[in-house]
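Incident log, structure service

09:12 report received: a user says their structure output differs between two submissions of the same chain.
09:20 pulled the input from the user's history:
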Amino acid sequence: MIENERDSRHEHVINIARQMMTAARTAPKGKGVDIIEVALVTGDELQQLSKTMVQIAEETGMKFFLRDANNILQAECVVIIGTHEHAQGLNCGHCGFPTCAGRPEGVPCAINSVDVGIAIGSACATAADMRVDTRVMFSAGLAAQRLNCLEGCRSVYAIPVSASSKNPFFDRKSNQPEK
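09:34 re-ran on a clean worker, output below:
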């Protein structure tokens, strides 16, 4: 039997994305409290994520959302990682407020932000170890948050995943007119 890489690429990338999700889950968490959520976006939901990014670009005027909306369509899938808002009770002031009780709703606990960052780093390290291409995208994460892909999560980030001869997530063309 001869198996061409092109015939198994999609399945292979999806399996790597699942390993990335496991890496995010097992990443260290502040105070050992696991408040992150991780999911995989493919197919029609990937199309919807892109459409939502276009809508955000139209609403905000932030052109990079258009570039990124087109860019994620070059991915085999997108891993999304977010965190629930949960004060860790340290009263450390790292969020900008002297106590956890004094932190307004909607301002993330700094430990929550660190946890999602460590999870993202673990997922991307796994992708790098497996030699697939990724890029962490705030824009696609915001669209996933708007779509409530990770129910109740704040600070959602997206990681498109690809295996092609050239990384589609870098050296990208801007939607800005040339000057």
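09:41 both user submissions now match this output. Likely a transient worker issue. Closing.
09:42 reviewer note: The first helix runs from residue 5 to 26. The first strand starts at residue 36 and ends at 41.
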